[in-house]
Every structure is written in C-alpha cells, then in structure tokens.
Design brief:
Number of domains of chain B: 2
Bound molecules: thiamine diphosphate, iron/sulfur cluster, magnesium ion
Number of domains of chain A: 2
CATH topology of the largest domain in chain A: Rossmann fold
CATH topology of the largest domain in chain B: Rossmann fold
Helix content of chain A: 25-40%
Largest sheet of chain B: 7 strands, mixed
Number of strands of chain B: 16
Strand content of chain A: 15-25%
Number of helices of chain A: 13
Oligomer: heterodimer
CATH superfamily of the largest domain in chain B: Thiamin diphosphate (ThDP)-binding fold, Pyr/PP domains
Shape of chain A: globular
Distance between the termini of chain A: 40 Å
Order of helices and strands of chain A: EHEHEHEHEEHEHEHEEHHEEHEEHEHEH
Strand order of the largest sheet of chain B: 2-1-3-4-8-7-9
Number of helices of chain B: 15
Radius of gyration of chain A: 22 Å
Structural class of chain A: alpha/beta
Chain lengths: 386, 441
Amino acid sequence: MTALGGLRITTASIEREFTDGATAIVRGALAGGCNFFAGYPITPASPILMMMLRDLPARGGIGMQGEDEMASIGMCIGAAMSGARAMTATAGPGISLYSENIGLALIGEVPLVIVDVQRLGPSTGAATTTAQGDIQFVRWGTAGGFPIIALCPSTIAECYTLTMKAFDLAERFRCPVFLMADKELALTMRTVDPADYEDAVVRERPVIDPEDLDPPAEYRYEPPGEVVPMQLYGGKHPVRFTGSTHDQHAYITKQPEIVGPLNQHLISKIDDHLDEIALVDTDLEDGANTLLAGYGVTAGSVREAVAAARAEGTKVSSITIQSLWPIPERQIRDAASDVDRVVMAELNPGLYKRELERVLPDKEIVSIARTDGVLISPSQLLEVIE
Amino acid sequence: MSTPIELLPNPSLRTEADYPFCPGCGHGPVLDALNEALMKLQLAPQEVVIVSDIGCSGLSDQYFTTSAFHGLHGRSITYATGIKLMRPDLAVVVIMGDGGTGIGGAHMLSAARRNIGITVLVLNNFNFGMTGGQHSTTTPEGFLTPTTPSGNLEAPLDICATVGVNGAAYSYRGTSFDHDLADRIAEGVATEGFAMLDVWDLCTAYFVRNNQFGRRQIDATMEALGLESGVLYRSDKPEFAAAYRKLAGGQHEGLRVKRVKATAAVRLDKRMHFVVAGSAGGRVRSAARLVATAAMRAGWWSAQRDDYPITVKSGHSVSEVIISPGEIHYSGIERPNVLVVVSEDGYGKAGPYLASMTPDDTVFVVADLPRPDTAAEVITIDPNQSDVRIAKAARALAMVAKAVQTSGVVPFELFEESAGEGGFGEKNLELVAAGVGLPAG
Ligand SMILES: Cc1ncc(C[n+]2csc(CCOP(=O)(O)OP(=O)(O)O)c2C)c(N)n1
Ligand code: SF4
Ligand SMILES: [Mg+2]
C-alpha cells in the first residue's frame, strides 16, 4: 500500500477536469453562440441533447426534442432562417434520416452544425460501440453530390475548439458543417487540463441590414464563389427561401443559364477557399520514412505510437487530419513529401485510405482498418513502423 | 354565411402572377381566401411566413408577396415550428396537400400536441395531384386512383379529429366553395395555438376525372363518411412557444464539469490499468470513477471507459480506468493490472482480461463465483462476511475499496478523499470501511 507520508501538497498547484467529449462539444457550442438545438435521442449522442436542453433555456436559447430526426433538423433549419445559430446531434441512423434535409440546408445556404457521434454500423449496429464509419456517408449523404464541410476532433479539448470552429465555418460559408465525433471520444471520461481549451474565433453572422434595403436586394450567389449575407425572417422586407432550383428572387426555375451558376456557386464557395477550412496537426521528424495518419480517436493511438517509436530511437512522422471534408490535399501532400509510406489508421473499412491513394498516388498507402468495435492500439501501429 | 368584405387600407398580399393550376383546380379559390384572411388581419407581407409543402399546393407561396419557405415534402410543419419558436411575433402559415398529412403525419400530430402557434391549411383534394393522382391518406374507400385501380381499401384520415383530440387549439373542416372560408382562415391565423383547416377541394386533372367527382360529391362524401363541417374543436391550452419562454430562464444551473485538485504529489512510474466488471445497476461506474479521481488527486491523469449493453439497468457493466503519469491519448486497455469481478455478469465479460493478465497482476473476485483460471494472483472477497450489510448494488464500491487498499494502485487516503466527497460521501465512506474490513483470501 502506498502511504502518502510527507507527500501532501498544501497549496493546490494542479487542478484538472475529469470530463468527456460530449460535454466539451456542448461547451464549444455555447461558446460558439449556439442558441437553438433540436435533436432526437440516440446513443451515443443523447448526452448532448440532454445537456443542451437543460442548459439553453436559462440562457435565453431554445432546446427541442423533435418527434423524429426529420423534425429535429427541420426545426433547426427554420430557426436558422429566423436568426438562430442552430445545432443538432445524432449518430449514423439519424444521419440517414437527416439526409434529405442536409440537401435542403445546402441549396438554401443555411448555416447549421450537425454533430455525428459515430457508432458501429451498418444499420442499428452496436449502439454503444465506437466506430468511424460515417465519414464518407456525411460527404455523400444527400442527393446531388455537392460539397459539405466536416471537422473531426481528436481530443476532448479539440471537441470544444472544433465545435466553435464549426459554428464559425457554418456562418462563413452558409452551409451545414459536420462535427465527426465517436462514442469513444464523446463518452470516455478523461483528465483534461483546462488550459488546453482553445477558443476559436467565431465571426459574427453577416446579415443584410433590412434598413439598408429598399427595395430588397437580389439574394445569394452573386458574385459567384462568394457568400452573400443572410436575410432573416422578420425584418423590414419579406424573405423568400426555396429548396427547389431557383432564380435570384427564390422563384422556382429550371432555366439552365440560371440553375448552372446557382449550383456552381454551391461548389465554388467551398472549393475557392480550401485553405480557410483545412486543419491538420503534423508532427514531422527529419529522416522518417513513415507518416502515421489518423483522425478522431485513431489520432490518439497515432500520438502514443509515435512517442513509443521515438523512445526506441525509431524515426516516424505523423499527421492528424482535423478537417476531413473538403480534403486538406495540399497539407497532406506537404506532410507526406519526405516519406515513402503513409499508414492510415481508421475504424471503418478503410474509407479515408482511398482518399489518400488519390491524393498521394506515388506513395505506398498502408491501411490499418478495424470494423470489430475494438480500438486500434498503438502497438498495432508500431508493428507497421520498421 | 358570408361576411361582407370591408374596404381595408391594406393592399392585397397576392403577386400579380396568375396561379399555375389546371382549369377548375380548387387550390386557387382557397389561396384567394387566404389572401382575403391576411388582409382582414391587416398583416404586412413581412409579418407573414408562408411555409409551403410539396405538390401543386406547394407552389402556392410564389403567388404571395409575403415571406416564404418552400422545403421538403411532409416537413413543412417542422420548418414552421422552428420559425415560430424563434419569431413568435410572425404569423406562420403552412400550406400543404393531403399528401403532406401522410408523409408528415408525425409532425402534424406533434404540432397539435405541442399546440405550437402555427396555422396549417390543408388543400385536401383526396389525391396526389402533382405526381399523377395517386391515392393519399384522405382518399375515401372505394374511390379510383392510378394506385387503387379497383377502388381504395384504406380508410380515409379524419384530419380534424386527429389533431382535435390531440391538443389543437382550433380545428376546422370546410370546402373551397364555402363563403365564410376567409373568415375561418383569419380565425385560424388569429388563434394563439395550433390551428388546422382541412379544406376539401377538387383536383380536376385526376380525382374529378377518375371518379366523376364534383362539388356535389364533395358534400355527399362528407355526409356519407359521417364527417361534419365547421369549427369542430377548440382548446385553450397555452401556446407552446410562449409557454416555453415562460418556463425557461434560470431554473437550471449551468453545465457542471468535475474539477479535481491535486492534494498530493506522488511518483508514478508507469501507466496502470484498473478494471471493474460487474452488473448494470450495480454502481460499477461510480465506484470506478472514485479510482480515476483519486489518481487525479495524486497529480496523475486518468481515463474511464465504460462498457454496458444498451439496456442500462440489466446485463454487464464494465469500467476500465487508466491511470497515467502523463496525458492519455489512447484509452484502450490491453492488460489490467488490477481486475475486480463483482458479479456473474461481470465474470462473463472478464475472459479476455483474465487471459491477458500475468503473475504481476491481481484479480479480486467475489467469493460466490468460481475461482477464475488466470496467471494473475487471485484474491477472493466475501461481501457477506461484513459486520454491516453490504447490499448487492453496493458490492462494487466495497470491493473496489478493498482492491485499492490491497493493491495500492492509487494511495488509499486519496481514494477515501474521493469517496467522501459530495452528497453520498458519508454513505460511501461507510461502505469503503466495510469493504476494507472484509476478509480476503
Ligand atoms: C420525399 C419525397 N417523396 C416523394 C416526392 C414526390 N411528390 C411530389 S408532390 C407529391 C404528392 C403531392 O400530393 P399532395 O400533397 O396531395 O399535393 P397536391 O399536388 O395534391 O396539391 C409527391 C409524393 C417528393 N417530392 N419528396
Ligand atoms: S393536378 Fe390537380 S391539384 Fe394539381 S393543379 Fe391540376 S387540378 Fe390542381
Ligand atoms: Mg392532394
């Protein structure tokens, strides 16, 4: 038995938190200005719903449990168009039911944060087992194939910072932004140093001041690739919104010369500003031949594997991808420029590996992929670093 | 009976454009009545949001100068709810077809139950006009549509009763031919709570043609179905958005995050893994939590990963605690240094742990379970040998206390400090003492 003897500290020098990612996401959302939340209970995202519904009313916000996922995201979209900074949270089965409304938020250019606390699929799968199987699903999960933004925190502190960042990007680009968490990150409690929570800058929502407008301005997609300020319901002028292809006044049209620029705008506003979105955390070592790559929970295993390898004198580099979509291609290429091999660790059938193969055609890509609900351990990664 | 239209200073809220509907389509007259209603209420275009569903009825918003939201099929009520919650001062009017009452039926029910202050105008033409006249929730039995070629077998939905018995503040049934329709719509929009207007009209392109249906058949069908027209339900339950705001504000404390101060500086050379395997409902997680926070009192870092089936109160509950001198990035456990098996459910999950353990590790197992087969040292604990009774749900804490004291995985004094904190502190400490006093063999 360990006896403390003279080891007592009288003045407390260290005070740390014991908390989880779900709590950090909620704190990040509140710090990011979230004042509307709607969700439908699902493991492992329910703690976020419960915390938001408990905390928002006292702050003057609104938290709703929808009758289903369609209602939850629908309320968020309606609220966002009426001035709310809105967020919803679910897991894979709920993303399926969000699908059509994700498209609506895209074409309507609605700022919205969608948290996906991933669990093992397909289907109901295993509700309390962690996974990262939704990363391509959120990218391609609605009709049309238009770009979305997806951030992926790898620590509890990052859950806070990237949730704030998600609110900023949602406003900046007027689009749905996904925060890709997972059961392990959201619900495993860990010690966190409060100093590690970094605040992200969350820009004000640019809105057209109705007083400046007489008559109402033409809206959206001019100039192409630039995001125009929102017009919210309840101002001096009526505001029109439609999920159908439309002209500058939101009247339905299918004229190619109008629909072409509208849809191109949805692509360009993201693709013309990739560097504003790209987020990676690299730890490069001179002379390393292998780059270990991870995101979310696997990035933790990568960090520990790197520390263990270096302690043994093995050179190795690593990259944590924090913005999964759009793919931070330039940043990945830079990180991989001096290695021959990239090892991609992920809890799915190898879904990001295929992106690396495309981005890094001249490198050997090794896939460490698990779909059995077990975490990829640092020792599993050490086996592939020679 | 019709009310004479007063001369109002308000301009029409219709645009100049003609409706796009087929000749004789009933949707146009209903929209004219809506315009008249909004004018009667002296609403300015920016004070009204028309939320249109999908279908021919869904085209409606484009013929008004008001704000508009045209979203997905069946979901119009959800957007309207979001708008009303944020801007209770706006008049939010949903226009949907009978199609919307099917695909969006759950939203219709929930909106009524919440009594959210929106108005829903159903342009009910007994079929899906836009997609070719297929049958809908309101197609009466026996009627012909392309998808009920031998006659419909499904009973038609009584929209008014459905929302009426479920909390709607106002529920009205009428037809596009009613002279008082504008007044009833105005009444609905002026209602604080949820207002439903089920307005029967003619789809000349399909339902009329397929069933030799007309104005007289609308009335006859209503009678044959035993349905009444007029204002059928009213309630004065408080409107949701207002009630929510009234209830909100300061009644909950903000988010609480557990902070732990280091009260000792203890050297720890390597990471330790402490696992508790027991039953759901057996307070396994809270017992493990005390080990994790005790480690933080020593200035260490910890992680706690809980595994349990989705049925929170039955089956196994396993908590893995990692204690580390530095920050923990990987929260998996390959081999426990200490494993506490509290119950049979936990025993069932212990196999892989037991197989991984070495003679340096220790298993604490409750005495009524078979002695596990493992390389680790095995210590059995019998909670029934206590002077004070240890309930089943308290076994985890008592055994964890014994395991901490025996193994020294965290300093026992710090574990006691953690256990003694908070509302259950005293009770916890009694159990810790009882646990420590248990004979171990
Ligand atoms: C999710 C989805 N499923 C199907 C459709 C196709 N659709 C368009 S309109 C419509 C039915 C419209 O009928 P109703 O609501 O009665 O309106 P009406 O045309 O009769 O006014 C359907 C099923 C769709 N737009 N979205
Ligand atoms: S198809 Fe039917 S509902 Fe649609 S416009 Fe023609 S008559 Fe009206
Ligand atoms: Mg219809």
